What does this fold into?
Amino acid sequence: MIETMPKCWNQKTKPHFFCPGCGHAIILKQLGFVIDDLKLEQEVKFFIDIGCSLLAWNFYNFDTVQTHHGRTTPTAVGYKMAKPKKVVIGYMGDGGGYAIGLQSVLHAAFRNDPVTIILVNNENYAMTGGQMAPTTMPNEITTTTPTGKEVKFGPGMHGPELIRNIASDKAYIARTSMSAPEAVKIAIKKAIKTQIENNAFSFLEILSICPTNWKTDAEGSFERLKMAESYYHIGEIPPQKSSQK
Amino acid sequence: MIHETTIILFAGEGGQGVQTIAEVTAALAIGKGYNATYIPYFGVEQRGASSIAYVIISKGTIYYPRFDDADIIVVMRERALKDIKRFITPNTDVIFDSSTIEAKDIHKIATKTIGFPGSKYALTKFGAKSYNLLVLGVIGNYLGFDKTELWENVFEKLKSKFKSKEIEEKNKLALEFGAKIVLEKGEYSKAEFKADLGDKLYRNKEREGIIKPSLCKGCLICVEKCPVGALSKGSEVGFFGANIPDLNIEKCITCGICKRFCPDGAVAVEKR
Ligand SMILES: Cc1ncc(C[n+]2csc(CCOP(=O)(O)OP(=O)(O)O)c2C)c(N)n1
Ligand code: SF4
Ligand code: SF4
Ligand code: SF4
It folds into this structure.
């Protein structure tokens, strides 16, 4: 029998709840492959936010905790404090991580809490109908910026770069894009290994697609993603030379 | 016929035009001097599930656009049956697409049933995209709207969607055809246009592939990403009512990209 899914996907809950062509599901697939490769199914505890990430509440064969909007990081950190041997992964949208939950993410980075945060940046508040997010790029049309995002709302927010400023040098902080699933897998592996081997904080932003709210077909979704890739920088954000954290 | 108040539930698959059918039905009633409401049903549990719309038509005031019991239910796909169950009373007329839904399945949940082989006529005569207009014809006729008025009103509402004269003409024919379909009572068409959800297997000497219509949502990302054009948009529809891809196993180079991308775990090819 040919396998079409990672082994740790809960087959009984498929088809899942994400829209046709959703980037979240493609990213959750790479995460699944990584957990299969590293044989971590028994060790992982998965924490999800409010936003489309919540649609993953029954996605995998491992335990998943549904938190409040923006509060995924502290809940995951609390769990890690109680069970330091478990591999703790927080998963959220850009609204959850950079808007309502930014201070939670910043403080986890500042304290160098040994958890892995995966943030899916689809550049909008997808679950609530495609409103402008801090990550929405200039001039983009959303339901709350019908004539395009104006300068007064700021440029697209660069989260990993911001977090790097206060994070420990041991922390792994990077941005990848869903257009390159192999690179996503490599980055997720590195992030998880940072937690397990270095007992340090790791943060990975993954640029993603949202065909429903950006109203794109398969081709259009990836064209838009290319635009996002040229606006945001892809790669690891290394510690600054002068820092002594 | 529209009574003092007529409560209608529309249920089908995303992509079948359920919401358009419901909205235009309400607009037609308003054009006739009735009060009418239309509201789509949204909810987390609704994601990836069937598409549902509430319509109320009344001579009096409508206080709330949702309801628990329906006078009429129009159901267009088998998968929506579980969602309409709770709206059925012994007096509800269930109008179903008899070319995709088995009469025996409808009779498990409803007593007053009326069939119309909508998918059969849409697919064989006009193309899948004309399905909503054909169903509008059926419903418009059932509710007693005048045939010529029906097209005028529908055209007014949907003209921006008709991108060419040809499409407009096709839709007009589908609507008029729908209005003339003789509704089935007791004797129903065969449900021969039901989506086949069995796995599609492909095989040659070097490799074997699988496509799962029961999971595929028809996003066509695999088609977009296949580097050698071995995948293409097929003509069959899957569980979600969307066209599923077709695989040319001879062209395939077993690169694994389709499996890596498919958000729904619905495709894979492996070396034998
Ligand atoms: C405390 C709180 N504020 C606001 C909301 C409403 N809300 C639900 S999802 C969401 C936005 C989610 O966007 P994002 O985090 O980017 O995730 P996406 O849906 O795009 O994946 C908002 C504002 C909420 N549920 N709770
Ligand atoms: S709204 Fe966008 S992000 Fe949310 S499930 Fe649909 S495609 Fe995915
Ligand atoms: S990527 Fe998957 S869900 Fe999308 S069309 Fe291909 S097989 Fe279907
Ligand atoms: S394995 Fe590669 S070549 Fe074969 S169908 Fe999939 S994407 Fe195309």
Remarks:
- The interface with chain A takes residues 44, 47-48, 208-210, 212, 214-215, 217-221, 223-224, 239-240, 242, 259-270 of chain B (CB under 8 Å).
- The longest strand of chain B covers residues 5-12.
